[in-house]
Design a protein that fits this description.
By secondary structure, the protein is of the alpha+beta class. The protein has helices spanning about 5, 20, 60-65; strands at about 25-30, 35-40, 45-50, 50-55, 70-75.
């Protein structure tokens, strides 16, 4: 972990608006219509009907999905 990461404040749900908490980003799976994606640490993300959606505020999941070669982020 870098010193920069330690300097970032930890946000709670109270730090976001209702719209930010509800907003999602959707990715299209170019290889499978249904599967489980296992993130580092064991967290599962489910692909269903060729799509996987995560909350916009979930930076860890978005970084994982952005870096996955089989997934493309759909326009918002």
């Amino acid at each position: 972990m870098t010193a920069d990461a330690l300097a970032l404040p930890i946000k709670t749900a109270d730090d976001y608006t209702a719209e930010e908490l509800a907003a999602v980003v959707v990715y299209r799976d170019k290889a499978f219509t249904s599967r489980s994606l296992v993130m580092p640490g064991g967290r599962l993300l489910q692909v269903s009907k060729g799509h996987v959606a995560v909350k916009v505020i979930d930076a860890q999941a978005r970084a994982y999905l952005d870096g996955h070669p089989d997934l493309e982020r759909l326009s918002e």
